[in-house]
Amino acid sequence: xxxxxxxxxxxxxxxxxxxxxxxxxxxxxxxxxxxxxxxxxxxxxxxxxxxxxxxxxxxxxxxxxxxxxxxxxxxxxxxxxxxxxxxxxxxxxxxxxxxxxxxxxxxxxxxxxxxxxxxxxxxxxxxxxxxxxxxxxxxxxxxxxxxxxxxxxxxxxxxxxxxxxxxxxxxxxxxxxxxxxxxxxxxxxxxxxxxxxxxxxxxxxxxxxxxxxxxxxxxxxxxxxxxxxxxxxxxxxxxxxxxxxxxxxx
Length: 250
Description:
By secondary structure, the chain is of the alpha/beta class. The chain has nine helices and seven strands, in the order E-H-E-H-E-H-E-H-E-H-H-E-H-H-H-E. The radius of gyration is 17 Å and the shape is globular.
């Protein structure tokens, strides 16, 4: 297979955690991978090196997904360098850990930043990526959402609201872009990542998931496998929000 024939995936927030796991999962399947990042330059470079060790091409591109101009430049570069796009993984997100009852600490500035990245960002990315995705049979989008968008729990009220809106956006875009482009989302429960490790000890994380039917937190690779399934292992699934939470929300 020539370089121009290899499939291409863009993973936003792709330097660490779930994004990194997604990039490596697609690389193992033979995809060239664009690792988008906003601040984690050294981690993005390391992830690209791991991707290329698997025999495919990796490129790190800095862009704030909440900035439409930067997003359009990101996908213009993808078009110049690869000439195609098969999958967009909307993974970039931000949050603050604020108790839900502490309404005064949920400032307007934090609200705006969370919605800018977690909701407007995926929309900006899909809008900029759609012309490329439509050129490729099977082009599709998978967003990393959260069970916070289903049950209203999560790191803070604004985060839960942003993910609930992302779930609705997923369904709206699936209708708008059909039949050429499929659009789905994955909704993880607690993931053993640096986000949660910043506020929970190992014991606290295990205690939080101990009552689940499958009593463990997800690993980033668990979520990456679900993202890959929606992108590559099904062709008749669109507008769906796949919950991956060990049975917590049953």
